[in-house]
From TrEMBL:
A Pfam family assignment: TauD
Organism placement in taxonomy: Bacteria, Pseudomonadati, Pseudomonadota, Alphaproteobacteria, Rhodospirillales
Coiled-coil intervals, chain numbering: none
Family: Belongs to the TfdA dioxygenase family.
TM segment ranges: none
Cofactor requirement: Fe(2+)
Keyword set, alphabetical order: Dioxygenase, Iron, Metal-binding, Oxidoreductase
Tagged with keyword Metal-binding: yes
A GO MF term: taurine dioxygenase activity
Species per Swiss-Prot/TrEMBL record: Inquilinus limosus
Name of this chain's protein: Taurine dioxygenase
GO biological process: sulfur compound metabolic process
NCBIfam families found in the cross-reference section: PRK09553.1
InterPro entries per the UniProt record, alphabetical: AtsK-like, TauD-like_sf, TauD/TfdA-like
GO cellular component entries: cytoplasm
Length: 278
C-alpha cells in the first residue's frame, strides 16, 4: 500500500474505510493500484470527507474502466455517465431488495461509485453483502449443486413498464427494453481477478434458473436471496455529507434502505463496465 493510504477493515467479510486520499485530485498509478487492491480484498470501500463534483467523480471512476450510461435513470446534464438517484415522496424507490447493478447486460459492471449529495436527517443507510462470503459459507453439496447452473436476468424485473406512465418515459423504456433483452449468466461466478467463486443471482434482476421448473427455480432462488442477506456477510454504512462508496459489483449485492420518507435523499452514481461472467 501507498504510505499515504490507510485501510481500516470494518469486518472480516466485507467493507473497509480508506483514508489519506482526495478523490477530487488527479491520482497517480500507484495510488489507483493500491485502491484497486483494497477493493479486491474488501469488496466495498468507503471514503469520507470528499468534495467530489460530477466531473471529478466520472474521472476517478474512469481510471478503473469504461463507464456505463444507464438507459432509463436520469443523469447529470453535462456528465451523462453520472446517474441521479433522487428519492422523495413523488419518486419512491421500488428496488427495495438486495441486488447487483445492471446484471441485465452481457457484461455487467465491474464496479460502481456512489456519492452522497443530499441526505435525510436520519435513515437512508445502504448495506452491502459479499456474495463470495455467502457462497463460501454454503455446504460442499450446495456448492457442487449450484456450480454449472445458469440463470436468466431481465431488465424488466426491476424496471417494469408500469413505472413509466408518461409518454416520453414509456418511449425511453421501450427503447431500453428493445436494447436489453434477457441475458443468461452463471449462478456461480468466478471472479476474473481473484479467482474466488461467488453467487451471481440477485432479487433485482434474476428471474429463473434455466432447466428447472418454475417452482423449483423459485425455491432455490428464494433460498439464495435469503442466504446472501445474512448479517454475517454484510456491512451497513450510515451516510454523511462527503461520503463516497466504491464497490466491486462482481462479488457484492447491496440494499438501499428507504426508511427516510417523506424526506429526500439524492445520490450520484458512476458505473464501471466489466466483462462477461464465467
Amino acid at each position: 500500500m501507498s504510505t499515504l493510504l490507510s485501510v481500516q477493515p470494518l469486518n472480516p467479510a466485507i467493507g473497509a474505510v480508506v483514508r489519506g486520499v482526495s478523490l477530487a485530485q488527479p491520482l497517480g498509478d500507484a495510488t489507483i493500484a493500491a485502491i484497486n487492491r483494497a477493493l479486491l480484498q474488501h469488496h466495498v470501500l468507503f471514503f469520507e470527507g470528499q468534495e467530489l463534483n460530477p466531473a471529478a467523480q466520472r474521472d476517478f471512476a474512469a481510471r478503473f474502466g469504461a463507464l456505463h450510461v444507464h438507459p432509463v435513470y436520469p443523469h447529470v446534464k453535462e456528465v451523462p455517465e453520472i446517474i441521479i438517484l433522487d428519492t422523495h415522496p413523488d419518486n419512491q424507490p421500488d428496488n427495495d431488495n438486495w441486488h447487483t447493478d445492471v446484471t441485465f447486460i452481457e457484461t455487467p459492471p465491474l464496479g460502481a461509485m456512489l456519492a452522497a449529495k443530499e441526505l435525510p436527517p436520519s435513515g437512508g443507510d445502504t448495506s452491502w453483502s459479499s456474495s463470495t462470503a455467502a457462497f463460501e459459507a454454503l455446504s460442499a453439496p450446495w456448492q457442487a449443486f449450484l456450480t454449472g447452473l445458469t440463470a436468466l436476468h431481465d431488465f424488466a424485473k426491476s424496471f417494469p413498464p408500469e413505472r413509466f406512465s408518461a409518454p416520453e418515459d414509456r418511449e425511453r423504456w421501450q427503447i431500453a427494453r428493445d436494447k436489453n433483452p434477457p441475458v443468461i449468466h452463471p449462478v456461480v461466478r468466478t471472479h476474473p481477478v481473484t479467482g474466488r467463486k461467488g453467487l451471481f443471482v440477485n432479487e433485482g434482476f434474476t428471474t429463473r434458473i434455466l432447466g428447472f421448473s418454475a417452482k423449483e427455480s423459485d425455491t432455490v432462488l428464494r433460498f439464495l436471496f435469503d442466504h446472501v442477506a445474512k448479517p454475517e456477510f454484510t456491512v451497513r454504512w450510515r451516510w454523511k455529507a462527503g461520503d463516497v462508496a466504491f464497490w466491486d459489483n462482481r462479488c457484492t449485492q447491496h440494499y438501499a434502505l428507504a426508511d427516510y420518507l417523506p424526506n429526500r435523499r439524492v445520490m450520484h452514481r458512476a458505473t464501471i463496465l466489466g466483462d462477461r461472467p464465467v
